[in-house]
C-alpha cells in the first residue's frame, strides 16, 4: 500500500512539474505576444496580463510538489553540517511535519476561498472579468498535492518502505 501511494503521489508530482514547465513556456510566449501587440502594432492588450500572472502563479504552486520530491528547493544546510546524523534526521522530520502542517492549513484556507469565489461568482475587476475560481483552483490543488508529498517524505524519513 505504501509503495502504491508513494508511486501515485510522485507520479502526480512529476506530471505537475511538467505542467508547471509548460505553463512557464506559455507565460513567456504570451509576454512576447503582448510586447509585439503593444509596441509594434500599437494594439491594446486585454487578457494577456492576467493570463501571464495566473499561469505563472499556477506554475509555482503546481511545481512545488515536484521541487520537494527532487529536493530542488534552496536550503541552508550549515547547521545540519555541524550536527550528527541522528540530529539531522530529527531536524528533517520536524521540518517535514511543520511543512505538512502549513500546507494542510493552506489547503483548507485556499479551499474555503475557492468555495467562496465559486458561490459568489467572483471575477477579476479587469475588462476580461476572469472567474476567480480559475486562478484559485491550481493554488488549492498545489497545496493539497504538496501536503501529500510531505506525507511521502515523512514516510521515507521514518524508514517505511516506499
Walk me through this protein's architecture:
With 162 residues, the chain is mainly alpha-helical. The chain contains five helices and no strands. The chain starts with a helix and ends in a 5-residue tail after the last helix. The mean pLDDT is 95.
Topology (SSEs and partners):
Layout: H1 2-40, H2 48-69, H3 78-82, H4 85-120, H5 133-157
Features:
162 residues, mainly alpha
Short description:
By secondary structure, the protein is mainly alpha-helical. It has helices spanning about 1-40, 50-70, 80, 85-120, 135-155.
State the secondary-structure class.
mainly alpha
Rg is: 19 Å
Mean pLDDT level: 95
What's the number of helices? 5
The fraction of residues assigned to DSSP E strands is under 5%
Amino acid at each position: 500500500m505504501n509503495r502504491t501511494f508513494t508511486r501515485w503521489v510522485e507520479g502526480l508530482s512529476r506530471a505537475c512539474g511538467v505542467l508547471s514547465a509548460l505553463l512557464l513556456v506559455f507565460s513567456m510566449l504570451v509576454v512576447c505576444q503582448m510586447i509585439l501587440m503593444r509596441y509594434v502594432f500599437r494594439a491594446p492588450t486585454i487578457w494577456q496580463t492576467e493570463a501571464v500572472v495566473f499561469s505563472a502563479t499556477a506554475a509555482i504552486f503546481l511545481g512545488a510538489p515536484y521541487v520537494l520530491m527532487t529536493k530542488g528547493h534552496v536550503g541552508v544546510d550549515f547547521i545540519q553540517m555541524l550536527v550528527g546524523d541522528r540530529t539531522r534526521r530529527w531536524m528533517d522530520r520536524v521540518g517535514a511535519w511543520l511543512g505538512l502542517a502549513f500546507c494542510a492549513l493552506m489547503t483548507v484556507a485556499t479551499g474555503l476561498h475557492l468555495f467562496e469565489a465559486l458561490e459568489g461568482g467572483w471575477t477579476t475587476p479587469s475588462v476580461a472579468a476572469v472567474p476567480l475560481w480559475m486562478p484559485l483552483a491550481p493554488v488549492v490543488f498545489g497545496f493539497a498535492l504538496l501536503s501529500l508529498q510531505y506525507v511521502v517524505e515523512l514516510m521515507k524519513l521514518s524508514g517505511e518502505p516506499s
